[in-house]
């Protein structure tokens, strides 16, 4: 069974986040990893496009019960029908989770992945978390580039 | 994107159901369909084994949040962490649903697929439903063999 | 904590099923049980109306993420946002499950309640299940009246 | 139908957070609001205890499919069986969401509530979010005391 990496990020993203997501997708496909994503637009579409361009496999875990609005680069579509609860499914399905950019939905995926705590979570850009004393909440790894994001997963030592 | 067919059935199954499931998996893989299943034992393991033996792709939608007890023939593992609610995800993910054998969990998948009503549902063996007047509840197609089950999906006219 | 009883049934129901559901709601409220239901129309609305008329408490577990289409007799509304997966929540929330009438959604609730197997499941009218040999699938209790349905739960010996 | 307020917070909390949660529960009950919470320990148990001491109604939305580990102050128990996806149910069930303290699970609830964006979200203590430019992410209201948290919901003008 191939390594699976969940890539999370907002539908409304910046051009830089889109480029980063595309590059993350390409690099994951080149290393033979299956990409898990939310299956819609923005970062989700970009990571899928990047992976497909490199002949990778992309699974889209949709919130809707049907394929409406799914991006065109998915190899496999899982229309869950459980709404935003599908964010948990995405968080649970990766051997690592890479987060590109920030939004409330994206943050919920990051938080659910950190909550179960079974796999490395790497952030590329996006929001920062401070605890009640103003210090960074420990746990999430911060990468400066798509390539470093993959390295920080520790999946390819 | 390949055709996806969800195959449902009990963990505790008869040898005949297991053989049927294996054959359904083989036939689906030969026709290029991705098999979606519950990812554990019994019918789920048999359909996965049949598809993998024919070099097919098998997605296991697990109830657990991790890979524990997943069968060894899955190409892609989706550990949902939503318990039996994952039956809805299985019911939603097929362009058709094929049910092999009967159990309460299996019945819930059949019922959820008939509930959304978007795709053909074909039963091979298993339980029968009568309405309050003792007549068969319409909607589910009943096949006499694995090959006929695939034909009755209407996906390969 | 009060006894909780989940009452399941179709949105599109017969006048007889509606009357049965209303009576089930009334009887449950009179015995001090909290009614759990799906929160929309048909059997769900009738059981809620019956319970509220007897000053009972009714919880509506909605499939939608908001209160749209909720019936007016709910004391507490739980808009899950998980679609039909909310049927599992209903099946899990009762100390007993009473099913009035039949539909695919209703059948999924009955099946999920039998799947976990922790509480009595009583059917009033609705569909019948036969196993592969044409015999009734054991487990569900069949009542002939609302009063008998409550008795068959075994919650009030 | 009564106002419903979801109160989120970690199982492992500080004595101060526990006191705040208890006070939030008491104040909500005194104003006639139904308290929705996760139903287990820490902040969840404290808000339930506070509300019950003031004769309020408390609904516990559990991740487990049964009542194991539920706190003793729940009026109504909803054992969802959908794991951490129940955080979405909590986020969707309040006319406002009050967050006491911080943890990854708590953050997922806050994020899911902000994601749907239908109700005010008020934080008492806990973590802070900065966007990519180091500025506070707008949207969540920050209260300095339990009483102010209730006021900031805008539900009692």
UniProtKB/TrEMBL annotation, chains A, B, C, D:
One Gene Ontology cellular component: cytosol
Domain of life: Bacteria
Xref: Gene3D superfamilies: 3.40.50.450
SUPFAM superfamilies associated with the record: MCP/YpsA-like
Stored Pfam families: LDcluster4
Protein name: Lysine decarboxylase
């Amino acid at each position: 069974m191939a390594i699976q990496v969940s890539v999370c990020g907002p539908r409304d993203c910046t051009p830089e986040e889109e480029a980063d997501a595309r590059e993350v997708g390409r690099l994951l496909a080149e290393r033979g990893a299956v990409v898990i994503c939310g299956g819609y637009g923005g970062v989700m579409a970009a990571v899928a496009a990047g992976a497909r361009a490199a002949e990778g496999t992309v699974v889209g875990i949709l919130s809707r019960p049907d394929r409406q609005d799914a991006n065109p680069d998915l190899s496999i579509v899982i229309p869950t029908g459980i709404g935003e609860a599908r964010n948990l499914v995405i968080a649970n399905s990766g051997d690592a989770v890479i987060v590109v950019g920030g939004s409330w939905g994206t943050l919920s995926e990051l938080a659910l992945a950190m909550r179960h705590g079974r796999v490395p979570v790497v952030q590329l850009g996006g929001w920062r978390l401070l605890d009640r004393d103003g210090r960074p909440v420990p746990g999430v790894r911060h990468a400066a580039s798509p390539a470093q994001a993959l390295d920080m997963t520790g999946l390819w030592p």
